[in-house]
Amino acid sequence: ISVVAPLVLEWSRFPRVQDNRIEGAVKVSNGTKDDFDLTVIVVAVNEIGKAFVLGYQHPELKTGTTDFEIPFGSTLPQGAYVVHADAVAEVPARNAIYRQRRQTPSPLQVTVGP
Fold first, then answer.
1. What percent of the chain has a predicted confidence (pLDDT) above 70?
2. Which is it for strands 60-61 and 108-110: parallel, antiparallel or unpaired?
3. CB within 10 Å: which end of the chain, N or C, has fewer?
């Protein structure tokens, strides 16, 4: 028996610090027989809880699509950031919503200011 997840969200390029930027990419896959109205948002949350958007996309993800890559990155002030990636896929015809989330296991340190 093979079980396929309806929505898959994975790091394709794990978030990393480059000077005063955090950048990376996620990939999403649609394992259903329905097209998705997909929303993906990636944020970096600092040590005081302030969130900075690193990336946002709202594509239609066709049925059977695998490894659709969404890059992200932004310049940030100094601090320690946990990166959160959230994907929400809606299928209005079925009244269905699928969600997936990834987060870095530890904060990433930005030591150079913008």
1. 98
2. unpaired
3. N
**CATH numbers and ranges of domains, the chain:** 7-106 (2.60.40.3880)
Cβ atoms of 59 and 38 within 8 Å: the answer is yes
Over residues 67-92, the pLDDT tens digits come to: 999 999 999 999 999 999 999 999 99
Output the pTM of the full model: 0.93
DSSP per residue, 17-67:
EETTEEEEEEEEEE-SSS-EEEEEEEEEE-TTS-EEEEEEE--EE-TT---
Could you give the C-alpha distances from 50 to 47, 70, 93, in angstroms and in order? 8, 23, 36
Does residue 113 carry a pLDDT above 70?
no
